[in-house]
Amino acid sequence: MAIALNDLAARGSALKTAAPLEEIRVALIRSCRRWLNVCLLAMPLSCVAATPARTAEPQPLPDFRKLVKQNEAAVVNISSTQAPSKQNTNRKPGLPDLPGKENPYLEFFKRFFQDRPELPGDRQSNSLGSGFVISADGYILTNAHVAQDADKIIVRLSDQRERPAKVIGVDDLTDVAVLKIEGDNLPTVKIGDSDALEVGEWVLAIGSPFGLEHTATQGIVSAVGRNLPSGTYVPFIQSDVAVNPGSSGGPLFNLRGEVVGINSQIYSSTGGYMGLSFAIPIKLAIQVVEQLKATGEVTRGWLGVLLQAVNNDLAEAFKLDRPRGALVAQILPDSPAISAGFKPGDVILRYGGEPVEDSSQLPRMIGVTPVGKTVAMSILRNGEPLEIKATIARLETVEDPVTTMDEHSEPRLSITVADLSNEQRRTIGAEEQGVLVTALEEGPAANAGLYPDDIILQINHNAVKSATQFVELAKELPKGRAVPLLVKREVESLYLAVRLPEKE
Fold first, then answer.
1. Is the model's pLDDT at 237 over the cut of 90?
2. Residue 130 designated active-site
3. Given 2.30.42.10, 2.60.120.380, 3.20.20.80, 3.90.850.10, which CATH number is that of 407-499?
4. Most exposed: 90, 154, 219, 475, by fewest CB within 10 Å?
């Protein structure tokens, strides 16, 4: 700009002495235009460089103070006493034992509530947990493992008053219990919609970790519909809310101050919080509460099948387009499944018109079905679609028995099998079927997950009636393709996918 003005001044001086006035005016106009064009060309670049980039404004963290003040009075501390004669000394503080091979991860799932270690001379054990009032007349919701088998339960309110509580009902399968104390106009919580929870949503827990009453901790929903080894009937809410022993039975709130879950379990290698906690959805809990209040027990539907998840190899073996559905591994005797015509190897794809994407969904769907209702199911049998109708019965306690001999070696699978004795066949409920795995070497059978002492019931959808027949059937297996193997392992049946190499 300075150069342009100097140039303009010099030209003007020269023109003043050597040119007429009109020439001076034209020269001035031309010089100004040139200078203005230079400025206009440079201006956009200057503007872009000088204008700061727009960034998203940071969102403030939620303020939980109002939520806590409105709800802490409805959260209670629960202590129970249990006579030594009723204590289950074999019960672990974690999840219940499951059939089949031991899962190394089970030991890390711990329920928050743990009994105080028994001391010499103890006659009772004291336990601490949490709960919350759901009605003004004194109904309280907590975990089953907090109230179970207690001789005496004491509920301490927020104002430190203590009231004896009566157990209205306990449901082990969902870990939900209902208590009742005497009272009028008690502070209550507001029940929310757990189905509306989304991953990333803020949640707050209130409870009594380590006996520290009315402790509030916050976090976000990490996952919904989480399946745990213990929770066949519970699609858990997973969060990173800090909870610890003593928080069992306490409420999980959304930002609207509504209860969306009951804190129930944690994932821990130490017994304390490690960033993973699990809550029972309140919608499921309320369904249980209604039945417990009405009858003192929960009635569930029962089909009578043992199910297995479908992985990629099993999907190929059973001619599915992708891993989905619930694979029927075993049919229990005297069950609706037998009457309906189900067979091992059926893959249930739809139940009552609803898709079954994962095997863990189906027990919950069956469980909430009214007893006596006939339900249509879409299945896949040997790659062909089929419709089956079954009348749902009531779920009762079913106890399966825990489970030789001409041996034969099968080199293609690297396995040795033996015939079963008549007594063994009667024990496992397979009068004319099954061979015992007596030895395994490294190879296709071991790679598929087969173990010694497993009983092979079917191979590639063919029933196995003897060790000799098994060897013959194995000779016909295709190369390079996964085929199903139905196995009886201890008290349960399951499918394995065995694959022979392309080149032997």
1. yes
2. no
3. 2.30.42.10
4. 90
